[in-house]
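Q: Entry one of two.
A:
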Amino acid sequence: MRIKKNVPKIDRKQDYDMKLCKLLNEYYSVLIVEADHVGSTQLAAVRRGIRGESELLMGKNTLIHRCIKVHAEATGNDKIKAIIPLLEGNVGLIFTKADFKKVREEVAKYKVGAPARVGLVAPIDVVLPPGNTGA
C-alpha cells in the first residue's frame, strides 16, 4: 500500500483498516518481526523474498491495535487480540499460509550486520579480548 499524499488522512486510515481486515480474514498465521534499524531497501528485499506465500505489513501500532480490536468485535474472534501486547516498538506483521520455519529462514536471509553507532544497544554480547590499550 503506497502512501497517497493527495488523499485525506482519514481515507488512508480506512484503506489501511480494510487491508488489515482482509489479511486477518485471508491468512491464518501471523509472524511478528522487529524492524529496528532496518532500511527501506532491506524491507523491499524481504517483501520480494516472501512474495506469493506471505505478506509483510508495517504501520502505526495504535492504528493496528484499533483495527484488530474492531475486527475482533466484528467477527467475534477474540483470539486475535492476543497479539496486541506484542506490538511494541517498530514491528511488522508477516501474514502467511506457509510454514513458520520456512518464512523465518527466508526473512533471516536478508539480515545484515551493521556497524556500531553511538547510543545504540548491541543486539548481541560484545566481548573484547584483554590487551594493550595503546598507552
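Q: Entry two of two.
A:
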Amino acid sequence: MYTLGKMSASRLLISIIIIVSASSSLCMDGKQMTQTYSKISAEGNISQPVLMDTNAVLCCPRIEFRNLIVITWEIIIRGQPSCTKSYRKERNETKETNCTDERITWVSTPDQNSDLQIHPVAITHDGYYRCIMATPDGNFHRGYHLQVLVTPEVTLFESRNRTAVCKTVAGKPAAQISWIPAGDCAPTEQEYWGNGTVTVQSTCHWEGHSVSTVTCHVSHLTGNKSLYIKLISGLRSSGSPALDLLIILYVKLSLFVVILVITGFVFFQRINYVRLQHR
C-alpha cells in the first residue's frame, strides 16, 4: 500500500508501507521499496528499521552500468571507524578501507549488483549507510539511517493481592504497555542497557472483586502482543518467586515440626500411661 504525502515547493515526502519477508531485498522493479514505517526524503535519505537477526539488502540508485565510473558505499557506525567499499569500473577493481565486519558485504560482484547486504543484522549495525554512484553526468546517492529493532520478551504475573506486573525485557526501541481494563497504575519504569535496548515495567492494582481477568497489551515496532491473567483474591506474594518458594517451604517445615511435637507428646503420654497400668 502506498501513501503519498503533500507536495511542497521545497520538499516531497513519500511514506511507503509494504509487508516484506525478513530476507527479501528492499529493491523491486528498479524502484526503492522499504519495509513498514520507512520514510524517503527528496534528498534520497531513508529512515529504515530492520529486525535483528534478519537479512537486509540496501540498494543504490538505479543507474545503467555503462554510465558508471565508480560505485562507493560509505558506512558510518557509532564507535567504529568509517568504512568505505568502492568499485572502479575502468579497472574492474574493488577496494575497502577500515571495513572489518564480515557480515557487511556486496550482494554479488559489484559489476553484477551494486547493492549492499547485511547478514545477519546485529544490534551493532545501527548507523548511516550511503551509496554514491559516480557518472559523467555527476554523482547520484542514496543514504540509509538504519535502525535495528529488537523484539522484547514479555512476561505477566501477579505480584501481590490483585496487583499485576507486565514487563518487556530488552526491547529496541522501548515498548509501550497498556491495560484492559485500566487499573490504578504506578508510573512506568524504564531501564536502559548499554546495547541500546530498554526494559519497561508497568504495575497496576484493581480494587474490589468486579475485575477477575486483566490483559496487558504491548505495542512495539516488531509487532504487538497481549497477555492476560486471572486475579486471585486474597493472594499474598512478595513479588519474588524465589522468596515466595522459601516462604512456602518455611510454612510447611513449621507445620511439620508442630505435628512432630504433638505426635511425640502423645507418644510419650501413652508410654507413661502404660507404665502406670503395670505398677
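A: Comment on entry two: Residues 1-24, 28-42, 235-239 have pLDDT under 50 and may be disordered. The helical segments are 241-277.
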